[in-house]
Design brief:
CATH superfamily of the largest domain: ABC-type transport auxiliary lipoprotein component
CATH class of the largest domain: Alpha Beta
Structural class: alpha+beta
Distance between the termini: 94 Å
CATH topology of the largest domain: Rossmann fold
Strand content: 25-35%
Number of helices: 6
Largest sheet: 7 strands, mixed
Length: about 325
């Protein structure tokens, strides 16, 4: 046999073995039509599916909390401002899916907090958090930052067969502040990663350039690490609303039917309480307990407000705090 024919035969056998290792299906009696198509355009092997994180357990009873999520600060050199926005979007989606919270639009937060409220720290100061709580009726404010992010590439090059593996890793830090006092309630961080594989055989297949979805999936993996603890922390925040207007015996509350109040619910009315500052650091620590003025009976609910009747007490004013009687 001619030496060139031996070399060609050897190459054909080698490619056949390599093709089998790449996962191409072979069936008895010759390749099927589907197999021939795959041989002409080999499909890339997808990354192993990530197990879906179980939904956080929701035990919160009573009205839904109004939660604001500020755009996260990206402290890394990757992704410019897009990583921070992506992290906030993912967290907003995950919290909304629980059905336990009302998420305030970030455009409203930016308008109240201002573009420079966060600086480069990812932390809202207590006074700013309390201001957002007063203006937007928030119960909790969520801030955070991306402290680490990186992409690594590895692979195999056998000439006719190439495999490229891209892996993104990141760390997301998160903080929750009580929007009525500005007090920090919860802080945590999550580390996540996501990888994608691409293969080429004889120049055919998927060529792997950097894809921003790689970073987004790594962010999602990081955020799911602390979702249970975050939800439990938010559930510890007591719901409160404010009196928007007093008209005779009718009192209007700045919370609509989406909050979950029901006709017949009783609300306790109290003053806002004075701000308490640390005498050394001058940091806002919280508020004193407001004086109880009386009770209101929920009679009707509209889209953006609740209508109540005075049940007991006098002297109710716009801005007074209302809480559900336990």
């Amino acid at each position: 046999m001619d030496f060139r024919k031996i070399r060609v035969l050897f190459l054909v056998v080698f490619l056949g073995v390599l093709w089998g290792c790449a996962g191409m299906p072979m069936m008895g009696g010759g390749p099927s039509k589907e197999t021939k198509v795959a041989q002409a355009q080999p499909a890339p092997q997808p990354a192993a599916p990530q197990p879906a994180a179980p939904a956080p357990k929701i035990t919160h009873k009573g009205p839904k909390l109004r939660v604001g999520i500020v755009d996260f600060v990206n402290k890394t050199s990757y992704g410019a401002g897009r990583l921070g926005t992506s992290a906030s979007d993912i967290l907003t989606t995950e919290l909304f899916k629980t059905g336990a919270f009302i998420i305030v639009e970030r455009a409203q937060l930016r308008q109240v907090l201002g573009e420079q409220a966060l600086g480069q720290t990812g932390v809202v100061n207590p006074e700013t958090a309390a201001q957002a709580g007063r203006v937007l009726g928030l119960n909790a404010l969520v801030t955070g930052s991306i402290s680490e992010f990186g992409v690594s590439t590895s692979g195999t090059d056998l000439g006719v067969y190439k495999q490229k593996v891209q892996k993104a890793k990141c760390t997301v830090d998160i903080r929750v502040a009580d929007a009525s006092t500005g007090q920090l309630l919860f802080a945590d961080s999550g580390k996540g990663e996501f990888e994608r594989k691409a293969q080429e055989v004889l120049g055919l297949g998927q060529r792997a350039g950097y894809d921003e979805t790689l970073g987004q999936e790594a962010l999602r993996s990081s955020i799911t690490k602390f979702m249970d603890n975050l939800v439990q922390s938010l559930q510890s925040v007591e719901w409160s609303g404010r009196i928007a207007m007093v008209s005779g015996n009718e009192v209007y509350i700045n919370a609509g039917r989406d909050v979950g109040l029901k006709p017949g619910d009783i609300l306790i009315v109290q003053t806002l309480g004075k701000e308490i500052y640390d005498p050394q650091t001058k940091v806002l620590l919280g508020r004193s307990r407001g004086m109880v003025k009386g009770e209101l009976l929920v009679t009707d609910l509209e889209e953006k407000m609740t209508i109540t009747q005075v049940r007991a007490g006098t002297g109710f004013q716009e801005g007074d705090v209302v809480k559900v009687k336990k």
